[in-house]
Protein: Aldehyde dehydrogenase
Organism: Rhodovarius crocodyli
Amino acid sequence: MDALPPALQGEDLISTNPATGEVVGKVQVTTTDELDAMVGRAWHAYHNSGWKSLLPHRRALVLNAIADGIAAEKEALATLQMKDNGKPLAECRGMVESAIGTFRYYAGVCETIETNVTPSRGEYVSFTVLEPFGVVAAITPWNSPIMNDATKVAPALAAGNAVLLKPSEDSPLLGPELARIALKAGLPADMLQVVQGKGADIGAALVAHPGVRMVSFTGGTTTGRAIGRTCGDKLIPVALELGGKSPHVVFADANIEHAVAAVVAGIFGSAGQSCVAGSRVMIEESIYDEVLAQIVARAKTLKVLPPDAAGVEVGPLASFHHRDRVVAFVNRARQEGGRILCGGEVPTGGDYDRGAYYLPTIIDGLAYDSLTCQEEAFGPVLVAIPFKDEAELIEKGNGTAFGLACGIWTESFKKAWRIGRALEAGSVWINTYKQSVTTTPFGGFKNSGIGREKGIDGLRLYAQVKSMYFGL
Ligand code: NAD
């Protein structure tokens, strides 16, 4: 156990409701000794539980039973997530539905996934089989815990692995619920265990643990780089889903009404705490003032309310310390010379005084290479950038380190195709935004990540290819 830091002291991790400041629940932080024991149990379960050698349709039965178990508790889970991270209840319900769909999808995939066969060349026939890595780590952020957990756990189990899931210390309550439901659904004991605690402590220890053979991470780019370094040293595969600064492009020939609605929803949904938030709106110069005015007018009407209030459109941020980061981000934008067109402040009075709220904020007048236009706020902050032609759009659109997603609004099919191919992004939305289905791969270009989750690719992440030859 040389790679591990000194044993961490067992302590509680408290989850606080960012809408009220009240304590929602607590979990025990995993110590390094416990981590060691968990990795041992995971390997024992991997070798002895029979999970990895179950016939695919039997594994599928359990994954479908996990989906049923989540569905049976969906309202309670959505409410727990709302309290754990402050997202509006309707959004949390959507994330629970997504988790259910993910388990069902990978139940289907593990029955139908195809591998390669090369027919006989006379002396032999060759084919490939997919094998699990053994014990894998799944590390998730706080913004959509149940959805992000399912996106990793379902395919990792479908591929036959044992999983150590580490939720964020800022939203620790959903991971244990998923493990409880999975056990009840028939997943063998210790095939899914939950590691709790701070990323820099137990998260780093988990990645470094010699018994962990693959790491799947969703979170910030700086963390992803650190995890990637450790995995590089260990020579184990790593999948990274990281941050973004996604451009949302509006051409003069767009359906402006739809574009404006999508731009506002694309950044202010989830209070901007979405990796694919369209945080840079890029508007063709000839319509810049008019369209930006419409976006600002619409943003000002958004209902910033507690996450369980009727009609809520923007809830609080996920934690008070995250709000501090957003406040600092906007203050720096001011220093960089940005014009605050709306928001730019913490609302006060009533519910606002108890929760981690921040008003939807739109900023313009900044150079596209300013820090505000380059770095992720991960909050309700939109920067507006004009462009005069396609060449300038592509230069500015691709002019960040990120490449997660982009949106394009135009009535010209050919232009949409051209720009969609030219922008460096893992997901391109044309005349729509933030759509996501389990069947379609998701991931980033450049500093937004390595690997693709969802779809068949999402299962292949958790499997290694073995090539076999049969002599005839
Ligand atoms: P974060 O990187 O701080 O933490 C994410 C997870 O990693 C947490 O569980 C944390 O405890 C753990 N962690 C932190 N340091 C670690 C270390 N050294 N070793 C191992 N684990 C460590 O990110 P966050 O603040 O929780 O989430 C916000 C970020 O996540 C944003 O940048 C956002 O864009 C990104 N994100 C990306 C996607 C995507 O699919 N691309 C989805 C959601 C969020």
User: Anything to note?
Assistant: Residues 247-430 form a domain with the Aldehyde Dehydrogenase; Chain A, domain 2 fold (CATH 3.40.309.10).
